[in-house]
């Protein structure tokens, strides 16, 4: 297992649509484990492959609370096969936008189909924070980030802060 560096916005890989995987090979299963370790270390509740510089349709999630047993989910080629009309709102953050938070509205419940770490097809019904997290991670696979769901004003405020932080890091 290994902890991988997490890319921070603005970064071109975060804006790039990811390629499907042909098959979840042992090498990709290892990437999923490294992503989980990276996510737990951050700490975060989800991580998408582009956030560690890999433009493939892979994500990991664990929304279990500290006082619960871990519930790691590893997904390749996830597809939303059903979403509720009802929407839910969560205060979202993103490991690629440190210290930035904003409310985002998304379908409250989703059904997702994916390949697990053994290359086996699975389906999962999700609601609450898990439904939000799945959609947040799947957005990353399209090169979409949570600030893209905000008003132009709120988005530009966050993007300006990120660009300023990048300049200060370079100086
Ligand atoms: O750690 C994370 N927390 C979070 C909180 C609310 C909605 C979505 C998330 S995902 C985020 C980790 C991350 O950036 N995943 O891409
Ligand atoms: Ni994110």
Written account of the structure:
The chain has helices at residues 26-41, 128-141, 152-170; strands at 46-48, 58-61, 73-83, 87-92, 102-107, 109-115, 121-127. The protein has 171 residues and is of the alpha+beta class. It has one domain: Peptide Deformylase (Alpha-Beta Complex), CATH 3.90.45. A 5-stranded antiparallel beta sheet has the order 1-2-3-6-7. Strands 4-5 form a two-stranded antiparallel sheet. The longest helix is centred in the last third of the chain and has 19 residues, at 152-170. The model has no long low-confidence stretch (mean pLDDT 98). Nickel (II) ion (NI) binds at residues 94-96, 136, 140.
Task: Please state the second-level CATH architecture.
Answer: Alpha-Beta Complex
Mean pLDDT: 98
- End-to-end separation: 33 Å
Quaternary form: single chain
> What gross morphology would you assign?
globular
Instruction: Pick out the low-confidence regions.
Output: none
Work out the radius of gyration. 16 Å
CATH H-level superfamily title: Peptide deformylase
> What class would the helix/strand composition place it in?
alpha+beta
- The fraction of residues in strands falls at 25-35%
**Number of beta strands:** 7
Name of the level-1 CATH class: Alpha Beta
What small molecules are bound in this structure? Answer: ligand GNR, nickel (II) ion
Fold-level CATH name: Peptide Deformylase
The biggest sheet, with number of strands, parallel, antiparallel or mixed sense and barrel status, is: 5 strands, antiparallel
